[in-house]
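Dear colleague,

Following up on yesterday's call, I've attached the two folding results inline so they're easy to grep. Please treat them as preliminary; we haven't cross-checked anything against experimental data yet. The first protein's sequence and structure tokens come first.
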Amino acid sequence: MTPIELAARRKRLGLSQTEFGQALAMVSPMPDGSPRPPVKQPTIASWEGARGIPETIDLSIRTMCDAIEDMGDQMVDLIKNIAEHSANVRNTPDVTIIAYGSDAALWKAWPNLTGWPHTMWNVAATIAMDELEDELGIIPVMVSEKDTQ
């Protein structure tokens, strides 16, 4: 993978370099299964810059990017299922989708997503919103988690 491809994939996910480092840690736990520390932002910047991706991880970085994208797809599916169920239960096409302003807020609401950047959820929510409207005629509105309290 080239540095420009890595940067493009990261940007397509809607992640900053710091958030991308956090997501990389989520898809590559330590050999004993414990969480890996996030990859630091300067390291991501060097991989996307003149230094390039070290040969030791070049083969695995593509797989890790794919795994991060898969998690984003899982978030889209989860959000769509929640919204579709809400619309059916309330018998209305109008649904509210919550966006999170911080990692802590996402992790509090969704403990099983602890470690994942809230930005991934918010990007997934916008994709889900488009698909819900196009596929099911559901009209979602995104609100901040602060607006729901």
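Below is the second protein, in the same order (sequence, then structure):
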Amino acid sequence: MMEQALIINNISKHFNATDALKDISFSVNRSELFGLIGPDGAGKTTLFRIIATLLLANCGTVTVGGLDVIKDYKEIRNKIGYMPGKFSLYRDMTVEENLAFFAAVFGTTIQENYELIADIYKFLEPFKNRRAAKLSGGMKQKLALCCTLIHRPSILLLDEPTTGVDPVSRREFWDMLYRLKEHNITILVSTPYMDEAAMCDRIALIKNGGILSVDTPISIVNSFTEQLWQIKSDDMYHLLLDTRKYDGIKSCYPFGETHHIVFKNDMPNIESFKQFLCKNGHNSVVISKIKANIEDYYMNLSQQS
């Protein structure tokens, strides 16, 4: 049985009349890259702040490495690295000054744990004397990760670390996370990007403060047992509205340049469907079978909940 680095049991949190988290339970294994996947407002940041001992839950328990987040909060703060979604380093300090400051806060030095951040800091070294405020989005992200790692935490909490970052920097960031796993660091990362879910060992899908599913990305995709179709035409907006009016449609939602649909019948009459759309003014409809991905599964669960 794998050793568990984080155990969340029946956590709930409300702000006034709003339920931010509703009976959340899951665990994260040691050295696992675990993703918390969901849109803005789903409860990801609230949960991260509870794990990081910055916020108290209304009920439930959280243990980090066997330590309770309430009773043992001082010990936990030395064992975790928390990178909030908003850039929170000192903007008037240089790259090197920020890193040295955070090392001093935790009673260590840059040199003592340099091998842990070396692969990341190499991108920053040419700009070590530049103020943090003057860094690009990708460089700010790398500096924040270095400062989070400088005390060699056993668990990393990364709250939407790639939001607003260019695609190249996003890819570089995930490559860095893979390398960190080799140091036996447990990583819990939240993201609204469904394509990043496939990069995790396991994921939890969250919506409106509740967990929809917890499993490996492959198992979640394989759980989508219905046949999925994609459809497009010259008028995508009205195609969406008209498709949803068709009696044989179970679900239809926008997906990039197409709409993804599921029919009520496993063997739908495609010609009849096309004729229906033609009567509604759609004369250039293209429809084809496709394989589902994690976002399709999420949308399917969202409609059921």
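For the second protein, one point worth flagging: The mean pLDDT is 92.

Best wishes,
A.L.
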